[in-house]
Amino acid sequence: MELQHVRVGYLIPSLRFYLALECEARQSGDGWVRLRYAGTVFVLEQGVPGSRPGAVVPELSVGDLLRLCCRLWSAGIHTSPIS
């Protein structure tokens, strides 16, 4: 199985978002961080989003949406309104 790579324009804010989702940082290097969430392992890479052909965003199941939004808000991460 190939490791999924997610290109992000801003690594640190993106990392804060995934850590607020309760992902675990496993390893890092210059411009990248390997994250784990349940059985999913993926790499955040500093770069131009969408510049890697076939790039996908890992599918993460978060359960209670309101609880998730409260965690994000308490981490200073703004979300769109829940409807």
Structure description:
The protein has 83 residues and is an alpha+beta fold. It has helices at 11-20, 65-74; strands at 4-8, 24-29, 32-37, 40-46. It has a 4-stranded mixed beta sheet with strand order 1-4-3-2, with helices on one face. Strand 3 (32-37) and strand 4 (40-46) form a beta hairpin.
- How many angstroms separate the termini? 37 Å
Low-confidence stretches: none
Order of helices and strands: EHEEEH
- Work out the helicity level: 10-25%
Name the average pLDDT. Answer: 84
Got a strand count? 4
How many whole angstroms does the radius of gyration measure? 13 Å
Helix tally? 2
- The side-by-side strand order for the widest beta sheet comes to 1-4-3-2
Shape: globular
Sheet bearing the most strands, described? Answer: 4 strands, mixed
Q: Tell me the strand percentage band.
A: 25-35%
Please state the structural category: alpha+beta
Question: What is the fold's blueprint, element by element?
Answer:
Elements: E1 4-8, H1 11-20, E2 24-29, E3 32-37, E4 40-46, H2 65-74
Parallel strand pairs: 1-4
Antiparallel strand pairs: 2-3, 3-4
